[in-house]
Amino acid sequence: MVTESIDIITENVVKYMIMSGHTVSTAESCTGGMIAETITGVSGASGCFPGGVCCYTEEMKMKILGVRRETLERYSVYSEETASEMSAGAMRLFGTDHAFGITGIAGPGGVSEEKPAGTVYVSVRSGDRELVRQLRLYEEYEDLTREKVRELSTLKAMQMMAELCGISES
Q1: Cα angle vertex 8, ends 80, 155, to 5°?
Q2: CA distance 103 to 114
Q3: Looking at the predicted structure, is the pLDDT value of residue 170 above 60?
Q4: Which pLDDT tens digit goes with each residue over 36-76?
Q5: Distance CA 23, CA 61 (A)
Q6: How many angstroms separate the CA atoms of 62 and 46, rounded?
Q7: pLDDT in tens, 18-42
Q8: Residue 115 and residue 130 in contact, taking contact as beta carbons nearer than 8 Å
């Protein structure tokens, strides 16, 4: 069900981008490229998607996306601030009109009491507008596996882009 929903919303987002002549890029960490994978799964996506990056380490987030060391030290890699700098970095890197930035804890490792598995931060950008959210998937879903966190995060990120751009989910 989750993958069907991802496919539907992604197709709507890609169609919107193509019809409006806009481009979109991705900067992913915990989803491991799943957002880019869903975008490229839509026929014609090359008309709006020049590329994305999977920056899994703090070093690569800084080196490739321009995430500031101060941001990582002050807020941590798992934060709205880091997700925001990731999406801004993707827009700069690829020269796109829209971008995704996503970081979080898929688990089971890397968890803490403050940030359990299913804690994800998403930033979506459209021009100078941005929508940033902390997802607490562990509060909404039971038996979260690593794959389920990745799928749900991808779905929620796509829904956020649709919301920011005023795209209907139907």
Answers
A1: 20
A2: 16
A3: no
A4: 999 999 999 999 999 999 999 999 999 999 999 999 999 99
A5: 22
A6: 27
A7: 999 999 999 999 999 999 999 999 9
A8: no
Count of H-run helices and E-run strands, the chain: 7, 5
Q: Residues with Cβ < 8 Å from 4, sequence gap 6 or more? A: none
Pair of tokens at residue 70 = 């101060």
Domain residue extents for the chain: 2-163
pTM: 0.95
CB atoms within 10 A of CB 110: 15
Please name the helix (run of DSSP H) or strand (run of DSSP E) that holds residue 119, with its range, or none. Answer: strand 119-126
Q: How far apart, in whole angstroms, are the C-alpha atoms of residue 149 and residue 127?
A: 28
Q: Which two tokens stand for residue 165?
A: 């751009």
CATH topology of domain 2-163: Maf protein (3.90.950)
